[in-house]
Amino acid sequence: MQISAIFALCLASAVNAGIPGPCIILTVIRTARAGAAAGVRVSTGILAGGGLLAAASVAVLLGLLALPAVVLLALKWIGAAVLLVLALQLLRTAPGPASAGPQASSSSDLLAGFFVGLSSPFNLVFYLALLPQFLPAGAVSAETGAMMLAALLAGAGLAQTGAILVGMGALRLPGGSLLQRLAAFLLAGFAASGMITPLG
Prior knowledge:
Layout: H1 3-18, H2 22-34, H3 36-61, H4 69-92, H5 106-118, H6 121-130, H7 142-170, H8 176-196
């Protein structure tokens, strides 16, 4: 696989991951409320969950895995439930500066990020549509699959880094309550959209 193709795949992944959605919103709001360390923990969980979807996509291309529709449907409904729970938590808690923000445990930040990252079967569909465009001529090798996976994760990591930086800037913005309510309604909207949108 050529360097230019790896770079293009990384860029496509960064653009997809950087579009404001549940992962970006969760990272920004958690960073804004509890500081950069919390944002990094959430981001790590998101990358782990998203990494599983990317790995599944590569495995499908390598012919190692077939994903039944019931798996995608289960991810869709689990994802909607996770987003609704997060939206309700944001609406119930009062915003405050980073020092006064909720002190969630490291594991709860990681788990929240992981389930949000894993709960988007639409990312899986995106990867499955995108990856074949970057395949070299001939059969896909394990080495090519590993390079594709690394490029996808690097792009998502760039987007998450940007979200943490935005969240750190949001610490200095007035209207934290409005930001929190907006994030809650957006997460609920993503959940509703995920429930009514077909995967195919």
